[in-house]
């Protein structure tokens, strides 16, 4: 495992010290420590760590709420520490965007496999999100292209193929994406439509 930049969040100073020693002996860097969830979220936003190791029970904001905020912002994977192994805690942790958890007391032989699990699950989650974002963008682009082609076909009596080729040429000439060209065609048509409407209303 490559060296990681890690944020530790726990209200017990002794536990933070033990974790820091284990992590630093393994070659990782503890970039900061937090004594409650609210500070942990703020530090995660500031430092963008590779991993957050966080306790469940903390003052001001607990680990589950903090993990949810960190997960929603896609700041880092969270490895949750808990004194409980009940199913409801595990389920709640999963729903909060926690990528792995450990039951206290933390043992070195369990800590590093859990870190690897959290890192690999977070990487898979990021890949899935990227694929979903691309799929959404592709769908939006297709819809814009279809609308822009329809405008060009109506205005210039192009065939669908001619309309697409005209946008492709404009895309290459102007060094713009097809999506940007389609948006420009649609915006131009909307402006023309408004101006035509104004002229008609004046008559």
UniProtKB/TrEMBL annotation:
Keywords: Phosphoprotein. One of its GO terms (biological process) is phosphorelay signal transduction system. SMART domains: ANTAR, REC. Residues 125-186 form the ANTAR domain. Residues 5-119 form the Response regulatory domain. GO terms for molecular function: RNA binding. The modification 4-aspartylphosphate is found at residue 55. This is Response regulator receiver and ANTAR domain protein.
């Amino acid at each position: 495992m490559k060296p990681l930049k890690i944020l530790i969040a726990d209200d017990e100073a002794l536990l933070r010290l033990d974790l820091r020693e284990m992590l630093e002996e393994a070659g990782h860097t503890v970039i900061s420590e937090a004594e409650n969830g609210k500070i942990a979220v703020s530090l995660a936003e500031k430092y963008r760590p590779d991993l957050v190791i966080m306790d469940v029970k903390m003052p001001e904001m607990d680990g589950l709420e903090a993990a949810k905020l960190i997960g929603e912002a896609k700041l880092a994977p969270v490895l949750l520490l808990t004194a409980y192994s009940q199913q409801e805690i595990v389920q709640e942790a999963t729903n909060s965007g926690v990528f792995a958890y450990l039951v206290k007391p933390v043992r070195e032989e369990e800590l590093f496999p859990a870190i690897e699990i959290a890192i690999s699950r977070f990487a898979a989650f990021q890949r899935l999100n990227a694929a979903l974002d691309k799929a959404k963008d592709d769908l939006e682009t297709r819809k814009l292209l279809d609308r822009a082609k329809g405008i060009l076909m109506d205005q210039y009596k192009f065939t669908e193929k001619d309309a697409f080729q005209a946008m492709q040429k404009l895309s290459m000439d102007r060094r713009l994406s097809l999506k940007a060209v389609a948006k420009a065609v649609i915006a131009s048509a909307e402006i023309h439509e408004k101006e035509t409407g104004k002229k008609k209303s004046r008559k």
